[in-house]
Write a structure and sequence with these properties.
Length: about 450
């Protein structure tokens, strides 16, 4: 009888996609989470650059971009060309490291840094990814509440148990494609933006002419937009996937193009979300406080059914990430500290791995079910935390990618170093400014 994992690899090769190396993290993950085609292999076959860049267009991303458009109209559109440059450069650096070394980011950090630095970076990754897992379960709960108000308190724990069983028992692939198809709903945002008849001249002007406000709300949305567009999870994912697909320096050129294209595509979707909400919500001074508010931006295309359309996309995007992200995080941490890993091992054989995987899911459910939780505000705040932790990952990547013995001829050039360092420094400064304004407001000092 044919081994399902080998059968999947053969199919991937016939489609022109390199199969994951036997024994690699992606290969093991594919075997553990699939009957005949696992979610990671399927996503990888679409292109790691495209998938990683669009990871920002999930529950937290939608909430942040919608809040930006509703609160400030077109004012923050000037950020997105700059974010595109930084996102493309950072993603390409991670992909290039995967091609040059054949290893994931966690492996390289463990091998090239001291134990204290390794622990610091891994804690930052764990906190960032843990926060993102929480946003996915909040997204699931919000999507349920949109359609069946009040039922999320019963439905979400059952869904979480279902996710755990799907991954552990290997049944996830049978529904993964359904969730992936549901995320296509968010392609309605560009259409909705056009149908809302925005002021394109005003939008174009704000895209090229920067404007800045020094107040806490503006800073929070500014930092959160960066954090949801260039989240640390993206770098871990794209490097591991490139390495596991067996992409080498010889055939890396096509992958570089794919990374750039994925970054551009994700950036454009984010821009259209901002424009759609700026055209539909901002003129009425209607801020995004709930998932229902965010859904109204789809009104021009869906009318009274907007909340159902939005709920479908939010549920699919959140379910995809809620299943894959805890597992990917557990693998990354377990590999970096050198302990047993794999959902087939059980708690006795792999207590750290299974504890992380199960604990992240439980944490996500527990936070999502807090009564009276301000959903949109929490989603935006988590993206801001991701931005605060982003420099830790960026500086680690910069150290690694400039090591000649690791990268050879694929080491960073001056332009990439400048863009990545400026990104890391600017994000660090913004994070401290946001922290400072928050502290001042706690003590009653008005900022802005």
């Amino acid at each position: 009888m044919t081994d399902p994992a080998l059968d999947t690899s053969a199919k991937a090769s016939s489609l022109g996609t390199a199969a994951p190396r036997r024994g690699s993290p992606l290969h093991r993950l594919t075997r553990l989470t699939s009957g005949r085609r696992g979610p990671w292999l399927m996503l990888a076959s679409l292109g790691p650059g495209l998938i990683a860049a669009n990871a920002g267009n999930d529950a937290g991303g939608i909430a942040t971009y919608a809040s930006v458009g509703a609160k400030y109209g077109y004012d923050l559109l000037w950020m997105f060309p700059l974010i595109l440059i930084s996102l493309a450069v950072v993603q390409e650096m991670a992909a290039r490291m995967g091609a040059a070394t054949g290893k994931g980011l966690s492996d390289l950090i463990r091998e090239n840094f001291t134990i204290h630095v390794t622990a610091f970076v891994l804690v930052a990754l764990l906190v960032a990814n843990g926060g993102t897992v929480i946003t996915e379960f909040i997204g699931i709960a919000a999507s349920i509440d949109l359609v069946l108000p009040g039922t999320q308190y019963v439905a979400l724990p059952l869904i979480a148990i279902g996710i755990w069983l799907m991954v552990v028992k290997g049944n996830y692939s049978s529904v993964e494609r359904v969730f992936l198809a549901m995320t296509l709903v968010f392609f309605a945002y560009p259409v909705s933006a056009v149908l809302a008849h925005p002021n394109w001249g005003d939008a174009a002007r704000h895209t090229v002419v920067p404007s800045f406000q020094f107040n806490q709300t503006y800073l929070l949305l500014f930092v959160a937009t960066v954090g949801t567009s260039i989240t640390p999870y993206m770098q871990v994912y794209v490097q591991s996937t490139v390495a596991d697909k067996g992409i080498t320096p010889r055939n890396y050129r096509a992958e570089r193009i794919e990374v750039y294209a994925g970054s551009l595509f994700a950036n454009l979707i984010a821009v259209f979300i901002v424009i759609a909400t700026a055209a539909t919500l901002f003129p009425h001074h209607q801020e995004v406080q709930t998932a229902q508010d965010a859904a109204r931006a789809l009104g021009p295309i869906a009318g009274s059914y907007a909340k159902y359309l939005f709920a479908m996309g939010l549920f699919g995007a959140s379910m995809l990430a809620a299943a894959v992200l805890p597992l990917a995080t557990a693998y990354s941490i377990a590999e970096a500290i050198g302990v047993e890993k794999g959902v087939s091992r059980g708690f006795r054989e792999a207590p750290v791995f299974m504890g992380l995987f199960t604990g992240l899911i439980a944490l996500g459910v527990a936070v999502a079910l807090i009564p009276g939780l301000p959903v949109i505000q929490v989603l935006v705040a988590v993206q801001a935390v991701d931005c605060v932790l982003l420099p830790v990952v960026l500086f680690a990547i910069l150290r690694l990618i400039n090591k000649p013995h690791l990268m050879g001829e694929l080491a960073n050039g001056p332009m990439y170093n400048v863009i990545a360092r400026v990104t890391a420094v600017v994000v660090t400064i913004l994070s401290f400014v946001l922290l400072g304004t928050t502290v001042l407001q706690i003590f009653g000092v008005k900022v802005g």
